[in-house]
């Protein structure tokens, strides 16, 4: 049999080109706190779609539970060893992960924190996140406009996440109060305001049961509550159930933050008056784009004007628009929501 050396040479050359192309395909890592939370599921969807569009390889990792730093450390080390160009991470332990993130940056990877800043935030090259102060401010402005002259006699229940003064918790709370027209003492600390319209603060742990319990506690303190701020939409749903059990659900305005699909449906159903929607898909999608740009040109992402992070946007959702406050309806919101 006559062997065709020219054909073999062509096959070898083609194989070499293919191998070279594969080796040059940038690797990007996405590390989330868990792979079950709808917020992080939507992040993964956004990263996968953008990676496919830009022709890069996305490798995804997640903690076994919220707070699982060890698994995230292993994921970063895996990506360093794989020669990845960059990492997108929602840190479970914002301080505990920092030494490993430093190793990644020293190895030349671009590291972007998604949604949750590292501690310190400068430990990452950039944070891509919601402007949580603005998110709170928008629902505060809406509530003030909606109540009109009654705003001066508001009795406000503040349903926070915890007593730990976590950055996102403080920002949403203080933004809401500013938007409603309440003077802040220290905008980096919640609970030090002296406005008599504030009935009090209680904690929810961001859960429906926590929201119910906190609402019951504050109603015992003052049964005249007529405005409720909640850290997120599950807490809002719990607050509503507590109000309903007292026959007060039609007399109290509830506002919240997140923009998950169950929360937007609660806008439709009249459970929540307004919510500020954040965009996890956009966070991850724009993060992938930033790492690809870095891999091509060495250009690093920069913060949004007036902020120390890259703002991925927020949108007020309500079916009761108020003068001077930009918003879209729940119908529009359902086309953009997550979870």
Automatic annotation (TrEMBL):
UniProt-recorded name of the protein: Mannose-binding protein/fructose-binding protein/ribose-binding protein
GO biological process: transmembrane transport
Localization: Cell envelope
Start and end residues of each Periplasmic binding protein domain: 28-296
SUPFAM superfamilies (alphabetical): Periplasmic binding protein-like I
Gene3D superfamilies: 3.40.50.2300
Pfam families for the chain: Peripla_BP_4
Top-level taxonomic group: Bacteria
Keyword flag Signal: yes
GO cellular component: cell envelope
Family from the record: Belongs to the bacterial solute-binding protein 2 family.
